[in-house]
Amino acid sequence: MREEWWLATAGNTLIWARLRVKEAGTAEVFDCDGATLPYDSEDSARAALMDADFVSLEGLDADDADARGFDIDAIAPPRAQDDQALRERMIVKLQRRQ
Q1: Pairwise CA distance, residues 98 & 87, whole Å
Q2: What are the pLDDT digits (tens) for 28-50?
Q3: Sorting pLDDT into bands at 50, 70 and 90, what band is 95?
Q4: What pLDDT was estimated at residue 41?
Q5: 39 vs 45: CA distance, rounded Å
Q6: Of 13, 31, 90, 92, which shows the fewest CB atoms inside 10 Å?
Q7: Rounded CA gap, 71 and 45, in Å?
Q8: Taking the CB of residue 16, how many other CB atoms lie within 10 A of it?
């Protein structure tokens, strides 16, 4: 299983989503509400994330992050022992820039 992190911003709030691609080619997205949404393919999961204004963390550079109002080096995907605990870390308030 391969895992990717995606993010969206709303004002000074960072919203995470985790995309997992399974060996069979299906995918699932764990969202900030704690729901795990199933998709028939990686492409359909990515399309749903992009439709919701999420971008892949892997493809984000410093200029993209700056345009969204944060420093790329100051963020990292949330970590937790399980999805229940992870849910509480999927929305992060960013420090306002001076």
Answers
A1: 29
A2: 999 999 999 999 999 999 999 99
A3: confident
A4: 98
A5: 6
A6: 13
A7: 26
A8: 21
Place of tokens 């764990």: 30
Residue type (1 letter), 4? E
pTM: 0.93
Host H or E run for residue 14: strand 13-21
Q: Record the tokens describing residue 7, joined without a space.
A: 């993010």
* DSSP annotation of 96: P
CA distance 43 to 41: 5
Q: How far apart are CA 12 and CA 92, in angstroms?
A: 9
Are 59 and 4 in contact by the 8 Å Cβ rule? The answer is no
Residue in the block written with tokens 């990717």:
4
What's the DSSP call for residue 59? G
Q: Report the first-to-last Cα separation within the chain, whole angstroms.
A: 41
Structure tokens at 20: 């997992």
